[in-house]
């Protein structure tokens, strides 16, 4: 069974550029490279990965694609592009020359709640589709309405929801998020990553029994054919080890059929991102 980690990062740590990594996250206040990651995924039985955007600049697209070329286990890259740019089409034509660059993401969770439903953003994302790129949606629960409006406005665009929209697991708040997850799951061009979850729980005291109700909602909303596994390494390290993240997902999906497990672990990521072999 092919196993893909569809969401991880690397970075050369800079305390200014990466100010979001505050002192509560001291364990990740350092640089992380593909060389750091490879033995970890090998031990966990992961065959390949998708490297996802950290910084909102074009330079990172080239740095990440170069890293992917030098580390063959990185099968795809999600980068960043300025969606409202007047020359977006020309930029995308140039970026298409990097075969491992599969799509783009913006740190929409840091933007106002209506950001993704703004006309200039919708227009930009429609341009992504014309060039064959995917889009990762990174939001918090209060931004789900705007994300739903975006996906509805772009029915032919492949989207994936990162980190199950970052529900308030630590607070045990599920109701409003759950309702919107069901709404999101109705849109068949939207996939969902089971990723970045333990960092939304109590970092020191989370348990599987606290987290699995949120997995249940994602599975009910999207079905096994539109769920992707992602670790969110190294961010996950603030709340647990890579093995804990893999085991948390693995123990949950073991009750699924073998075909559904194969889809979750790799097939869906392969299909969504059109990954290289």
Write the layout of secondary structure elements.
Blueprint: E1 4-8, H1 34-44, E2 48-52, H2 58-70, E3 74-79, H3 88-95, E4 101-105, H4 119-130, E5 134-137, H5 144-153, E6 159-161, H6 175-185, E7 190-194, H7 208-222, E8 227-229, H8 242-253, H9 258-273
Parallel strand pairs: 1-2, 2-3, 3-4, 4-5, 5-6, 6-7, 7-8
Helix pairs in contact: 5-6, 6-7
Overall pLDDT, averaged? 97
The major β-sheet equals:
8 strands, parallel
Number of domains: 1
Question: CATH homologous superfamily - what is it?
Answer: Metal-dependent hydrolases
Radius of gyration: 17 Å
**Spatial order of the strands in the main sheet?**
1-2-3-4-5-6-7-8
Q: For this entry, what is the oligomeric state of its chains?
A: single chain
Termini separation comes to 14 Å
Q: Characterize the overall form.
A: globular
What string, H for helix and E for strand, traces the elements in order?
EHEHEHEHEHEHEHEHH
CATH secondary-structure class: Alpha Beta
Unreliable parts: none
Fraction in beta strands: 5-15%
- Number of helix segments? 9
Q: If you consult CATH, what is the topology?
A: TIM Barrel
Q: What is the helix content?
A: 25-40%
Please give the CATH architecture. Alpha-Beta Barrel
Which structural category do the helix and sheet elements fall into? alpha/beta
Beta strands, count: 8
Describe what is shown at a glance.
The protein has helices at 34-44, 58-70, 88-95, 119-130, 144-153, 175-185, 208-222, 242-253, 258-273; strands at residues 4-8, 48-52, 74-79, 101-105, 134-137, 159-161, 190-194, 227-229. With 277 residues, it is an alpha/beta fold.
């Amino acid at each position: 069974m092919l196993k893909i980690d569809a969401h991880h990062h690397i970075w050369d740590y800079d305390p200014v550029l990466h100010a979001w990594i505050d002192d509560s996250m001291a364990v990740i206040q350092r640089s992380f490279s593909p060389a750091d990651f490879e033995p970890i995924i090998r031990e966990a039985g992961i065959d390949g990965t998708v490297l996802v955007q950290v910084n909102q600049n074009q330079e990172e697209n080239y740095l990440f694609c170069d890293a992917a070329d030098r580390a063959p286990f990185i099968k795809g890259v999600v980068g960043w592009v300025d969606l409202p740019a007047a020359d977006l089409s020309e930029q995308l034509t140039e970026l298409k020359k990097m075969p491992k660059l599969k799509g783009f993401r913006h740190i929409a969770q840091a933007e106002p709640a209506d950001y993704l439903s703004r006309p200039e953003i919708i227009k930009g994302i429609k341009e992504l589709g014309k060039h064959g790129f995917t889009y990762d949606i990174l939001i918090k629960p209060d931004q789900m309405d705007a994300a739903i409006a975006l996906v509805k406005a772009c029915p032919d665009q492949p989207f994936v929801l990162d980190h199950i929209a970052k529900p308030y697991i630590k607070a045990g708040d599920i109701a409003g998020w759950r309702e919107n997850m069901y709404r999101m799951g109705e849109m068949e061009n939207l996939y969902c990553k089971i990723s970045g979850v333990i960092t939304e729980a109590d970092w020191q005291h989370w348990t599987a029994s606290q987290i699995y109700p949120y997995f249940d909602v994602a599975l009910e909303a999207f079905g096994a054919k539109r769920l992707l596994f992602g670790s969110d390494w190294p961010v996950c390290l603030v709340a647990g080890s890579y093995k804990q993240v893999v085991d948390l997902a693995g123990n949950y999906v073991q009750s699924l059929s073998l075909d559904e497990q194969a889809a979750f672990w790799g097939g869906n990521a392969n299909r969504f991102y059109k990954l290289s072999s």
